[in-house]
Amino acid sequence: MITKLDSVLLPRKKFIFHYTNMRWARGRHETYLCFVVKRRVGPDSLTFDFGHLRNRSGCHVELLFLRYLEALCPGLWGCGGTGERRLSYSITWFCSWSPCANCSVRLSQFFSRTPNLRLRIFVSRLYFCDMENSRERDGLRMLKKAGVQTTVMSYKDYFYCWQTFVDRKKSNFKPWEDLHQNSVRLARKLNRIMQPCETEDFRDAFELLGL
DNA sequence: ATTTTCAAT
């Protein structure tokens, strides 16, 4: 069942300011995370939960989300008894920045140890990914290995977020200038980041050769 | 041409 409380909806201006995917995102000193949690309760029955979070002093929003996980996903680790069924959840989140290196490590560890929990990440902008050798780039590759797919948000994702998380007061989503071009540019960039790097190729080759 | 980044002042 879906219940929309006004208090869980993002103000329109906040959404637009923080999710605009411009190249030089000056002043975005906060990160927003809009999430949908789906829980499979039967062969053809799902429940939904959704909302948004913002980073708090000293705590990146991804780690804040992990803190709320137990409340969002009851029964994720079983209910304490023996032999009870672990529940399965899938989470989709839409973040204004992609995760930093540290958050990526933490998320990779967490999600590779929790196979009954799936995460898909959509991001509006790439955080500190300009340098070829940035740790943030490593982090995104690490997430992929842990089964967490990261995707750059496109028009349909912004549209979905607007419909789902924003206190839009029935107004339609008005895309900003260059939304599409920026999205395509960032998607290409992420694609390049996800290509296995050369040293990794060498490592695989060495492994094949038994070296 | 150059600009920014889960702040720090």
The helicity comes to 25-40%
Report the strand count: 7
- Strands of the biggest beta sheet: in what spatial order? 3-2-4-5-6
What count of helical segments does DSSP give?
7
Q: What is the total number of structural domains?
A: 1
Binned strand content:
15-25%
Order of helix and strand elements from N to C terminus: EHEEHEHEHEHEHH
Mean residue pLDDT: 90
What is the makeup of the main sheet? 5 strands, mixed
Name the CATH homologous superfamily. Answer: Cytidine Deaminase, domain 2
CATH fold-level label: Cytidine Deaminase, domain 2
Instruction: Give the class-level CATH name.
Output: Alpha Beta
What is the 3D shape? globular
Structure overview:
With 211 residues, this protein is α/β, with parallel strands linked by helices. It has a single domain (12-72, 84-209), classed as Cytidine Deaminase, domain 2 (3-Layer(aba) Sandwich), CATH 3.40.140. The protein is built from seven helices and seven strands, in the order βαββαβαβαβαβαα. The chain has helices at 12-19, 61-72, 101-112, 135-145, 155-165, 179-194, 198-209, and strands at 10-11, 32-42, 45-54, 89-97, 117-125, 149-152, 166-167. The strands form two sheets. A five-stranded mixed beta sheet has the order 3-2-4-5-6, sandwiched between helices. Strands 1-7 form a two-stranded parallel sheet. Strand 5, helix 4 (135-145) and strand 6 form a beta-alpha-beta unit. The radius of gyration is 19 Å and the shape is globular. The chain binds one DNA strand of 9 nucleotides through helix 2 and strand 4.
